[in-house]
Specification:
Length: 833
């Protein structure tokens, strides 16, 4: 009996048992140390002191898609640059819902929760999320990665071009108003005085990082030109295509006459032909904005312009693209075939002698990537003879002519771009006995160029995101970069250019390969200090891997493999806790950032150096020798999350051989490092901290129902959505084979009000011997009006026995039990019995 302080009395040994510490389920109950607990159910510790946990309420009045696995995951986006916040729910019908109605949690949402913003394919997994520059990344395991820009995102470029003729494929000049429109200083404005495009050749070019659906204009001075309408064109890869605009800036038939939003007729997500393009030195999604024929904008001042992908009632995420990083690529090699000599003259791409090239000769050059334009630089040499070029590509069988050629070289008379429509059947080849495969192009001319002409070649590549894969498995963010895994190589993490989550190319792009070489899929990516911790799927007896990646740029990225056995179950089974108390690094209790994760082998935490198991006391739920072990094949149902209000790690597991949704829920108290069990009226499939726009509380906890279709606000009220909370603690008293005589037991509880009671019971060798509702009516009531504590004495009917269990239970609706401590008087026989 050395677990607690013992004092001798005339009746026996007297012990004070503080209400602290968790339960042990892995051991047989008679083997639990004297005075420890086999169950702490629906209780929370105040260190010391046990109190019934808070309950939960419906967050919505109507269930949405109530079906098996009806809510898979939750995420909240809170933008930093703009005032925009939204809660996202991934339902079991594979759709992603969004709610941003001022986010007045804990006020209930009436009707269905939000609206669908992405219609997912069937069979989705718990989604992973990330945020880069206020763009939300989303991966559900069945569709291409999705990007959500929201309703209020900064534009990337705003350039007004006035010309004397139709604008070139690569317009030059113009007035750049970008920084004025994104600086948040409403006292600075951009003046817009333009005519139409057809007659006056005036237009505004706007670039965004992702395809957009709305433009939000803040008008400082209203347009006062005659009535007209605005048009918005997007780039299809071959031409500008016009969108119908619903113009919220119009007043009196005049556009840009008031602050408002222009909404595009066709959703960005459904414009499958839209492509990024290069203009004004940068590549992105460009839009041409102009007036209808014979229209104009005059004396207009604009102070802010933002964009978004969201339109109420419509899908508003857009699939991931791989946008060129705007850095021209070098050619691998070039050949000048001189027909008169019958020879291929070999050159590097930065100095190709085409002097005297005739209509019978050919220039061949190789690119590591498919191209949509080539930059031909004549340097210090000149060609004075107009030579109209034709350019072809290799389609796998023959040389095919590229169409819609735009000749920025003015027939080889000056430096410039040759651009064309992207082909769909381009193939790599080994040309002219080269030892490598590349994309080869052939240029011919219709006249002979000057004899001294030497050119250099630079490429404008384009990329198809589907080359990486058509399905996004996991995503995240790190060092202002997007992180993506795909179905082709589900282990590998593709790291975007810094600040450019849609640019997966160039020297600032990287591919990370976690683990020990096995191809186990990456299941979760957690941001940890300034690094990331990557968890791979646990397969077979070898399990998975846990890897940390460090570094500042692709050239310095490196990895440390922390485990070649452990991994995790899904994207919602990992969480990071700042200020977690740990004794991993010294004998002192330290507060530090820790990663917690759920595995087939238990619950673990890591400080980035070592991994420590924390589920020893409940390890029977992860040990295949026990019938209650977690169920194989239901990994996507289980979850782990941090509750910041209670400073606890919470887990939900599918226990046993028949459950299909989470049926066991445990809490790990980070202060004491012990476990409690929660029993809910509803099965919970996920849990998240979110913030509220209004009200007293900054942080609110919500859960999703596994089969109900409801969202719940946790840590609220004194019942579980109208069902009583059964709080229970079971203490075990045994001293090896010696007999115990439990003579008297007293408890101190917090006053809860008149008629508040709790029940206790006594078991000898697992057989009930005594039970009572303590003191009848009012056992948690004050004896005197001013008292805040009640003391209850239990004269027990237990005889001498080697094992005694004592249980306190309270299962009354809207009643909370708060136990301060307990004292016992017991005797241990000097005989073995």
């Amino acid at each position: 009996m050395d677990n607690y302080r013992i004092k001798k009395t005339s009746k026996g040994d007297f012990l004070v048992i503080p209400m602290r510490g968790g339960m042990v389920t892995i051991r047989e109950r008679p083997l639990i140390p004297f005075g420890e607990k086999s169950l702490v159910q629906n209780m929370r510790c105040w260190h010391p002191g046990f109190e019934t946990r808070k309950g939960y309420d419906n967050l919505v009045t109507v269930a949405t898609n109530a079906s098996s696995d009806s809510i898979k995951n939750l995420f909240q986006l809170s933008k930093g640059k703009r005032s925009e916040q939204a809660l996202f729910v991934q339902y079991g019908n594979d759709d992603l819902y969004k709610q941003d109605t001022t986010m007045t949690i804990p006020t209930q949402f009436t009707g269905d929760f939000g609206e669908v913003i992405h219609t997912g394919s069937s069979g989705s997994i718990p989604a992973s999320f990330g945020v880069v520059n206020d763009y939300m990344l989303y991966a559900n395991g069945v569709d291409q990665h999705q990007i959500y820009a929201g309703v209020d995102q900064e534009i990337e470029a705003f350039i007004i071009v006035k010309d004397s003729a139709a604008h070139d494929h690569f317009p030059a000049g113009g007035v750049d108003g970008t920084f004025t429109l994104i600086d948040r200083d409403t006292s600075t404005t951009v003046a817009i005085d333009i005519g139409d495009y057809t007659n006056d050749f005036d237009a505004i070019y706007i670039m965004t990082k992702v395809p957009m659906n709305i433009l939000n204009w803040t008008i400082d001075t209203a347009n006062d030109a005659a009535a007209t309408t605005m048009k918005v064109d997007y780039w299809t890869g071959t031409a500008w295509s016009t969108l119908t605009v619903t113009d919220g800036t119009a007043s009196g038939g005049k556009p840009l006459a008031q602050t408002g939003t222009m909404t595009m007729s066709t959703l960005a997500s459904s414009r499958t032909t839209e492509q990024s393009r290069y203009m004004f030195g940068q590549c992105g999604f460009w839009y041409k904005v102009y007036t209808a024929d014979n229209g104009s904008i005059a004396n207009c001042e604009v102070s802010q312009l933002t964009y978004g992908t969201y339109v109420s009632g419509s899908t508003s995420t857009v699939p991931l693209h791989n946008v060129w990083n705007s850095v021209e690529t070098d050619m691998v090699q070039a050949f000048h075939y001189v027909d008169a000599d019958g020879i291929y003259y070999n050159y590097a791409g930065d100095a190709v002698d085409i002097g005297g090239m005739t209509s019978s000769d050919f220039l061949y050059f190789a690119s590591p990537y498919p191209l949509e334009a080539v930059y031909i630089d004549f340097g210090s040499t000149t060609n004075t003879t107009g030579a109209d070029p034709t350019i072809k590509y290799w389609d796998g069988d023959s040389w095919a002519t590229l169409t819609q050629l735009v000749d920025g070289t003015n027939e080889f008379l000056e430096t410039g771009w040759l651009a064309w429509q992207r082909p769909t059947d381009e193939e790599k080849t080994q040309f002219n006995n080269t030892k490598y495969r590349a994309y080869w192009y052939q240029i011919s001319v219709d006249a002979t160029v000057d004899a001294s002409t030497v050119i250099s070649l630079l490429g404008m590549p384009y990329f198809n995101i589907n080359d990486f894969g058509r399905v996004g498995y996991a995503c995240g963010a790190w060092k202002n970069r997007g992180l993506y895994t795909f179905d082709k190589f589900p282990r590998d993490i593709y790291v975007s250019e810094s600040g450019e989550h849609m640019k997966l190319n160039g020297s600032d792009f990287a591919i990370l390969q976690p683990g020990d070489g096995r191809e186990n899929a990456t299941k979760a990516i957690a941001n940890f200090y300034n690094e990331i911790m990557v968890f791979q799927e646990e397969l077979g007896t070898k399990g998975g891997c846990v890897t940390i990646f460090e570094g500042y740029s692709p050239s310095t990225f490196g990895k440390i493999v922390l485990s070649t056995k452990l991994g995790t179950l899904n994207a919602k089974s990992v969480d990071v806790v700042d200020g977690s108390k740990s004794t991993l690094t010294s004998t002192q209790v330290n507060a530090q950032t820790m990663v917690f994760f759920l595995s087939h082998y238990g619950v673990f935490m890591s400080d980035g150096k070592v991994i420590t198991g924390i589920s020893d006391d409940i390890q029977n739920y992860f040990d295949e020798r026990f019938s209650e072990c977690i169920r194989n094949g239901y990994e996507n149902e289980m979850w782990l999350s941090y509750d910041s209000t209670e400073n606890m790690i919470k887990i939900g597991i599918v226990s046993g051989n028949s459950a299909t949704t989470c049926n066991k829920f445990f809490c790990y108290d980070l202060t004491d490092g012990v476990w409690y069990e929660d029993v809910y009226a509803d099965s919970m499939s996920c849990f998240r901290d979110v913030s509220s726009d209004t009200g007293q509380l900054h942080s609110i906890q919500i859960s999703g129902g596994s089969t109900s279709g409801f969202l719940y606000q946790m840590n609220a009220g004194t019942n579980d959505n109208g069902t009583a909370i059964e709080s229970k603690v079971i203490w075990e008293f045994s001293q090896g084979p010696f007999f115990i005589n439990l003579i008297e037991l007293s408890t101190r509880v917090k006053v809860q009000g008149d008629l508040k009671t709790y029940t206790w019971s006594l078991e000898e060798n697992d057989v009930e011997s005594d039970t009572s509702t303590q003191g009848g009516a009012g056992s948690m009531a004050a004896k005197n009006a001013s008292e805040t504590m009640a003391r209850n004495r239990h004269l027990l009917k237990a005889g001498e026995t080697p094992w005694i269990s004592f249980t306190i239970t309270d299962d009354t609706l809207d009643e909370s039990l708060y136990i301060y401590d307990m004292g016992i008087i017991a005797e241990v026989s000097e005989q073995l019995g």
